[in-house]
Write the structure tokens for this entry.
Amino acid sequence: MNKELFIENRKKYLKKCVDKSLSVFFSGQVIQKSADQDYDFEVEKNFYYLTGINQDNVILAILKNGDYVQETLFIEKNDAILVKWVGKKLEIEEAIAISGIKNVYYLESFEGFIHGAFNNTRYTAYDLKYLSLNLERRNQESYTNPALEYAKIFKNKYPNINILNAYDLVIGLRMVKSDEEISLIQESIKTTKSALEAILKNSRPGIYEYQLESYFDNYIKYHGQKDLAFKTIAAGGKNATILHYSRNNTLLNNDEMILFDLGCRTNFYISDITRTYPINGKFTKRQKEVYQAVLDVNKKCIEYLKPGVTWEEYNNYAKELLTQACIDLGLIKEPKELIKYYFHSIGHFIGLDTHDPGLHSYPLQAGMVVTVEPGLYIEEEGIGVRIEDDVLITENGSINLSKDIIKEIDEIEKFMAAK
């Protein structure tokens, strides 16, 4: 990726952050999986948004004092033995080239840097009043992260310095995508389209969900070594009525449908697509009725999106449409019964994360990318349908970025008949 994207992201951040502050962002740490293996490292996305660096144990510091700005990276020094075992980490010149940050030092100098920045008796002091940290919080009692842990350490050493939360500030910036970010999302969508077509070509009764899923995995790996955006949902028959079904181990039977919720990522920018297909290539009469009802809601919701629409308005609009659909399908008689067949939000932001964090009190604005994913889940009939597209908000309304992924009934049946 072009380092200019990350330079521009930091400029946006500097316009928003308070004066006389030092902002510190941690890239994250490797987590142990078993006695002899770690989980794949997943970089903290706010850090990545500001640096473009995908490596554990890296620290970004952004100092703002009036017109004076200093950007600094702290990286690990390569250990000759570890290089032989797991490979080389970034050298100083490589970190500069990726991020566009000219001041890069080794991690061992970080505490000295902090001491110099916040002690007014030092010639390096800037009379700073604030430390801004990426204080993400989750509704999990045991959850922590490097920023939360460092806040405790720093407060003990510098009780006179106010600690601010930079998390919401960066999330607010991430909500509006640049042209380059949108292009990366589009590349992920393009790959997902072709991978879904590989699934359609190989769909048939008598195989397992995971076998059909494997065609998606193979395609995205073979064509660009892309990662999954998230664990694929491949839910056949009744399994499709479970929102986050993930076992993917059931035999696929004739006259059932299979719901795929999947995506890949390009430089961490993701696609998130859901399609529901007849396993044998032909919808039954009832499947058509339910599928068409969901598809109509999907298309109407895409048309509804525009700048100024709030999340509450968007969700309420979708619920109204789905309520009427359920009444027309003979499933319910009163709106309060909708929750039996539809029990999730109509969409979410996407970007560097599948469920990209967003400030939901803000109305939609041009440059945001959101999902549109209505669904109906009829457990007693073994029918679950969800249709999800990735949609860009523009000044004039919305653009369905995934419009080329077929979803009309006749298109699906025609494509599957030709395999």
